[in-house]
Amino acid sequence: MATPPELQGRHIVLGLTGGVACYKAAELARELVRSGATVQVVMTDAALQFITVATMQALSGRAVATSQWDAREPNHMPHINLSRQADAILVAPASADFIAQLAQGRAGELLSLLCLARPIESCPLLVAPAMNREMWAHPATQRNVAQITADGATVLGPAAGDQACGEVGDGRMLEAAELRDELIAFFQPKLLAGRSVLVTAGPTFEPMDPVRGITNHSSGKMGFAIARAAAEAGAQVTLVAGPVPLPTPRGVRRIDVLTAQQMFDAVLPLAPAHGFFVATAAVADWRPVQAADQKIKKKARADADSAPTLALTENPDILAAVAGLPQGQRPWCVGFAAESENVVEHARAKRVRKGVPLIVANHGPAAFGRDDNTLVLVDAQGELELPRGDKLALARALVQQMAQRAPEARQ
Ligand code: C5P
Predict the structure, then answer these.
(1) 3-state SS string for 238-279
(2) Is 22 one of the catalytic residues?
(3) Is the pLDDT reported for residue 152 higher than 90?
């Protein structure tokens, strides 16, 4: 069954204020609509200097609201109507001046008016600042940002980088896709608030020589999805990743490694400081005893005798080592089992052998590299199947199960 888009059923008021970053708001409106939201755009007079109503109306599929004096509203109260219908208000871009207005509770035009008039408990306000770095760093702006945060607004970004004015620094608005993901994360239940999760992901690469090595088809997608889902659920997340080209989920601390030994060396010291350990990495079981210093050359005549013989040695088992930490230092452990046959039986045996409370079984060839998967959770009580879905939806379901099964897990 296809997973419904993540913002399905959400009604978002997207507020635009004056700034060059209005060009990103066009893409953002599109991303929100693509994710299933209905989007009501509200623009300030300053925003109208940067992007047209026609563009925003076409992308959102709704008439844009620009004035509190719009006579088309039967009750003549657009500020009340707009904020009562919204699941959230997202102001992107939010100028320094607009943030100052919010901090002071001003209501001089429709957008500031509806932010002030919104029911604070049921209609959250998210703000994506966009301004020159000096404006962002100014004590007045920092004071205003602290004030709106204290008043319950969620400030998204800003990022650092090139600015439209030619300067480089803090104050760039987050990209449209980043803001979409922030909004999706905002709506996820905070099941792991105050908890910490350590995740391994991807394959490892065991060098034979400077240009070759032993690896596998793991894409890292499942582990990255779990890291993202745990972060969305409010956890502090550390992701130890093998060589994969995936982007780091927002808010996740990432440590890149290449070999199983490096993964072991990164994970073991971190494990006692985490409440959960989720081992999704497809760690190579063996590595060449010795990697050659130089590329191993073919003999001049390629006959059978020219093939080198590789001596292999076993890699340390990271999951078993973490599960074997003394109580008090041991996180609540989740292992993965990718099998090609008898998936559940192998997973049961693996759970006992590794000494972990939960093993997530999946069919390796049907999972590696794909965007969707089917998972079977195997614990001491039995099995629970999470039906085929995209890996992020499955990761969210797994996070929910972890929160339920380990209410007592350490922070
Ligand atoms: O033993 P096997 O590789 O089948 O077990 C899979 C589980 O153990 C996965 O959770 C994997 O991340 C973990 N593992 C590990 N270190 C290894 C081998 C596997 O952490 N060296």
Answers:
(1) EEEECCCCCCCCCCCEEEECCCHHHHHHHHHHHHHHCCEEEE
(2) no
(3) yes
